[in-house]
Amino acid sequence: MTPRGEKDEAEVVSGIFKGKTTGAPVTILIYNRDVDSTPYEELKDKPRPGHADYTARVRYGGYNDYRGGGRFSGRITAAYTAAGAVAKKLLGTIDVETLAHTVQVGSVTLDREVTVDEIRRNVYANPVRCADPDVAELMMREIEKAAGEGDSVGGVLEGLALNVPPGWGFPIFDSLDADLARMLFNIPGVKGVEFGSGFRAASMRGSENNDQYAIVNGKVVTTTNNSGGILGGLSNGMPIKIRVAFKPPSSIRIPQRTVDLAEMKETVLELKGRHDPCIVPRAVPVVESCIALVLADHALRIGAIPQVLKSEH
Ligand SMILES: Cc1cc2nc3c(=O)[nH]c(=O)nc-3n(C[C@H](O)[C@H](O)[C@H](O)COP(=O)(O)O)c2cc1C
Prior knowledge:
The protein is α+β, with helices and mostly antiparallel strands. The chain contains eight helices and 15 strands. The strands form six sheets. Strands 6-5-7-13-8 form a five-stranded antiparallel sheet. Strand 14 (256-260) and strand 15 (265-269) form a beta hairpin. Bound molecules: flavin mononucleotide.
């Protein structure tokens, strides 16, 4: 999905000793090696429509590092996944699992419910990270078509968290859904986050949207999951289900109108450089990680994972 060739080698520089965390912050460095800053010189004064070039220039008075998009590059999410790897390990100690998969690319949608097994098995076996291999083919063609036309496409990811016990969350302002949405909106390119039936709930009747209760194996469950596993900002024990909408990335080869801020004149931008025609597949591990980070924080705060470990010495 990307013409850039980063090896993504992670170097742990603090916080781990003899294979275990020490209690000091875990610092992981991932260097950008495949760098080409030349195409960004033109963007210094000619902001890309749809990217953060103009807003960053205004906010930081032109001192922002515009090379590669600077801190507004999707590259920043490599660090989210490094932190997410640690969060996933913490959550693994209490059997909480986070998953994500592609459910829409441009006009191609995954129209059926896929099983958790299909997600676990298939997502990392195809380049678009869709749980249905046939739909994955169609998604790939959709991306190739847009890329061939010098354009880009957006899409939707579904994020899941399994085995989250009921009762997590700190209403009102640290509600579980509010914290998850806050983190997910810090992924560049995210334009929508919905839980369960989400925006569809607006056109549903209460009788349709309410998740009715039942007892299965002595546990309270709901027979549907329109809430997406969160009610009143608290987990209800059902899978947490989130849909995350990504815009089509803004850096496209098609010429577009912009302005030359040095000369204060209108001009046309014909973009060169190496850009992703669709960021959705690359965001799958990022969404998994962001969900894991928020849940690990909540697990520690609520005491589901002990903060003080028993000494082995
Ligand atoms: C993994 C990843 C890769 C991205 N790659 C690109 C890219 O190649 N070209 C681009 O224009 N935007 C890319 N983006 C999106 C931009 O970083 C984002 O649109 C920009 O920072 C503006 O922020 P906003 O879209 O959230 O408003 C990427 C995002 C992610 C998460």
